[in-house]
Write a structure and sequence with these properties.
The chain is mainly α. The chain has one domain. It contains 2 helices and no strands. Helix 1 packs antiparallel against helix 2. The radius of gyration is 17 Å and the shape is rod-shaped. 12% of the residues are buried.
Protein backbone atom coordinates (compact mmCIF):
# COMPACT_ATOMS: atom_id res chain seq x y z
CA UNK A 1 0.00 0.00 0.00
CA UNK A 2 1.46 3.39 -0.92
CA UNK A 3 2.63 5.55 1.97
CA UNK A 4 0.05 8.30 1.33
CA UNK A 5 -2.85 5.84 1.47
CA UNK A 6 -1.55 4.35 4.71
CA UNK A 7 -1.44 7.88 6.13
CA UNK A 8 -5.05 8.51 5.06
CA UNK A 9 -6.15 5.15 6.44
CA UNK A 10 -4.61 6.05 9.80
CA UNK A 11 -6.30 9.47 9.83
CA UNK A 12 -9.62 7.80 9.06
CA UNK A 13 -9.12 5.24 11.86
CA UNK A 14 -8.18 8.01 14.28
CA UNK A 15 -11.33 9.94 13.34
CA UNK A 16 -13.57 6.89 13.73
CA UNK A 17 -12.04 6.07 17.13
CA UNK A 18 -12.59 9.67 18.27
CA UNK A 19 -16.23 9.61 17.12
CA UNK A 20 -16.78 6.27 18.88
CA UNK A 21 -15.34 7.75 22.09
CA UNK A 22 -17.60 10.80 21.69
CA UNK A 23 -20.66 8.57 21.26
CA UNK A 24 -19.72 6.62 24.38
CA UNK A 25 -19.34 9.87 26.34
CA UNK A 26 -22.76 11.04 25.15
CA UNK A 27 -24.30 7.74 26.24
CA UNK A 28 -22.67 7.98 29.69
CA UNK A 29 -24.03 11.50 30.12
CA UNK A 30 -27.46 10.48 28.86
CA UNK A 31 -27.60 7.54 31.28
CA UNK A 32 -26.86 9.85 34.20
CA UNK A 33 -29.43 12.38 33.00
CA UNK A 34 -32.15 9.72 32.94
CA UNK A 35 -32.31 8.93 36.68
CA UNK A 36 -33.22 10.77 39.85
CA UNK A 37 -30.13 12.49 41.12
CA UNK A 38 -28.49 12.65 44.47
CA UNK A 39 -25.84 15.29 45.04
CA UNK A 40 -23.12 12.74 44.18
CA UNK A 41 -24.95 11.72 40.99
CA UNK A 42 -25.33 15.36 39.95
CA UNK A 43 -21.55 15.73 40.31
CA UNK A 44 -21.03 12.61 38.16
CA UNK A 45 -23.49 13.97 35.58
CA UNK A 46 -21.64 17.28 35.42
CA UNK A 47 -18.34 15.42 34.99
CA UNK A 48 -19.90 13.32 32.25
CA UNK A 49 -20.92 16.54 30.49
CA UNK A 50 -17.34 17.79 30.70
CA UNK A 51 -16.08 14.45 29.38
CA UNK A 52 -18.56 14.65 26.49
CA UNK A 53 -17.35 18.11 25.56
CA UNK A 54 -13.71 16.96 25.64
CA UNK A 55 -14.56 13.93 23.48
CA UNK A 56 -16.43 16.20 21.05
CA UNK A 57 -13.40 18.46 20.75
CA UNK A 58 -11.14 15.46 20.08
CA UNK A 59 -13.54 14.15 17.41
CA UNK A 60 -13.67 17.56 15.74
CA UNK A 61 -9.86 17.79 15.76
CA UNK A 62 -9.52 14.29 14.30
CA UNK A 63 -12.07 15.15 11.61
CA UNK A 64 -10.14 18.28 10.68
CA UNK A 65 -6.86 16.34 10.50
CA UNK A 66 -8.47 13.73 8.24
CA UNK A 67 -10.09 16.39 6.02
CA UNK A 68 -6.79 18.27 5.78
CA UNK A 69 -5.00 15.07 4.74
CA UNK A 70 -7.64 14.40 2.08
CA UNK A 71 -7.34 17.97 0.74
CA UNK A 72 -3.57 17.61 0.60
CA UNK A 73 -3.81 14.33 -1.33
CA UNK A 74 -6.50 15.31 -3.80
CA UNK A 75 -6.07 19.06 -4.17
CA UNK A 76 -2.45 19.66 -3.05
CA UNK A 77 -3.35 22.29 -0.44
Amino acid sequence: MPEDLAHLDQKQKDYKAAVDAWIAAIRREEALASVNHSVAEIHQWEEAGDDEEAARSQAKAAKKAYEDALREKFFNF
